[in-house]
Amino acid sequence: RVLWSPPYLSRLWCIFELAAFRKANPTGQVVLAPLYVETMIGIVLIGLTIIMVTFMFAQILAWGAMGYISIAISTCPALPLIHYIRRILREKRRLVDALASFDLHEAGCSSDFDREFIYSRISLWYGSPEAFTDYV
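Now predict its structure.
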């Protein structure tokens, strides 16, 4: 299981870990566990709680007034909630796009020695860096 975050596939050492895992466990399954799932669940739970509490206070404060006022007031916290959910869904889209447009040569590495080492191992295991890119 790999905890995925947006810059994951742009780091050469992270990609090397995936390549080494598949080489050591050819039948093993790589499961990407994006961090946005837990974030989205937490934000939705907190947001719904805030909406519920706001609705309860609006009901109490708008005693004798129309119920529409309390509903209107209680939906105000939904706007930031929708904003955060949209941001998280964009992160999901980035995961799909990163996998679809993956290129080993675009991965960053600060050391030329490390880059050469990783490319040589990937070439040995998968035939060439291009073959590994196609594999991903």
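The first strand starts at residue 2 and ends at 4.
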